[in-house]
Amino acid sequence: MEIRQLEHFLAVIEQGSLGRAAEALNISEPGLSKSIRRLEDSLQIRLLDRGTRGMTPTLFGESLATHARLIRNEVDHARSELSELQGVSKGIVRIGARPSFGTVILPRAIAQLQNKRPGVRAIVREGMMSNMIVEVLHGDLDFIVVTLSDQTPDDDLIQESLIDSPVSIVARAGHPFGNQNPLSPDALAEMPWILPLGSDPVRQKLEEMLAKCGIEKINVLVESDSVQFIMEYLRETDAVGFFPEPMIMRSRNRDDFTILNVEELKWQRKLGIIRRKRTSLTPAALLLVQELKKLCEPSS
C-alpha cells in the first residue's frame, strides 16, 4: 500500500467516478483504474462498488478512507512543517472556532502572529461543534477554539483551557425587564427565547441551570446556530437569549443590548482549544496557540 495509491483511492471517492478523479489527478483513466486495482489486490478486499450513481466505497472502503484522509493530512502537515523549517514557507494554520470566540479573540491573535511572522497564512472556519470535532479527528483542522465541557469529546482528542468567560441573559436595549434589578428566573419562564441549537454546550448549561431553579421548560420560539442572526432577532423583538458577555461588550452595536441581572443564570464558561492527541502541531499552529494564551492572560 502506497501513499500515491491512497491519494488515488480518495480522489475516486471524492469525485464519484474514475473519469472525474483521473481528470482531477491529471492522469489517464486506465492508469487510475490500475492503481486502484493494485491497492485492492494488496489488501485482498474490494474497496469500491460501481453503480448508477458512480463509484461508491464498500464498507471496507469507508473504513480505509477514514485512515487514508488522516495519512494524507499527516503527509501535508509534514511537508508544511519541513518547508517552514527550511524557511521556504512561513506556514499555514487551519483553525475552527465558534462565533463567540472567532469574533472576539481569534482575529487579534492571528493579527499579532502575522505581525511577528509575516507570511503566515490562516484558514478559519466557523461551524457546529460536532462537525468541527470530526474535522479535527480527520486532520482537516489543526485545532478548534470552543467552549470546553468537563469531558473530552473523544479519546483521540485533548483539550486545553485558555480562559473563563462570563455568560448572561441578554435582551434588547429598552426591554421591559431591563430595569428590574434583580430579576428572578421565574419571570423569564414564559418570555420568548432565542437559543443555539440543542447540541450547543452553552444551551445545555442554561437548561441545566434552569432545571436547578425548578424550570423544566421555557418558551423557545427560535433556534439558530448563527450568532449574527440571534443578535439581530434580539434587537428586533422582546425575546431573550444567552450570550457571552465579552461578545456583547465588544460588539459595534453593544448599545443596542442590555444584560439582564439574573444571578441564578450567570456562569463562567471555560474556553479553550481541542486538538488531536497523537499529532504535534505545526510551528505556525504552535505560535498561534501561544498568541491566544497571551491574549487570555488577565493583564490582556
The total tally of domains equals: 3
Return the structural class. Answer: alpha/beta
What is the C-alpha radius of gyration, as a whole number of Å?
A: 24 Å
Mean pLDDT: 85
Key features of this structure:
about 300 residues, alpha/beta, Arc Repressor Mutant, subunit A, elongated, 7-stranded mixed β-sheet, D-Maltodextrin-Binding Protein, domain 2
Describe this structure in words.
The model has no long low-confidence stretch (mean pLDDT 85). By secondary structure, the chain is of the alpha/beta class. The protein has three domains: 3-68, Orthogonal Bundle (Arc Repressor Mutant, subunit A); 82-163 and 270-296, D-Maltodextrin-Binding Protein, domain 2 (3-Layer(aba) Sandwich); 165-268, D-Maltodextrin-Binding Protein, domain 2 (3-Layer(aba) Sandwich), CATH 3.40.190. Helix 1 crosses helix 4 (59-86), helix 2 packs across helix 3 and helix 6 (106-116) crosses helix 12 (283-296). The strands form three sheets. Strands 3, 4, 5, 6, 9, 10 and 11 form a seven-stranded mixed sheet that branches. A two-stranded antiparallel ribbon has the order 1-2. The radius of gyration is 24 Å and the shape is elongated. The protein has twelve helices and eleven strands.
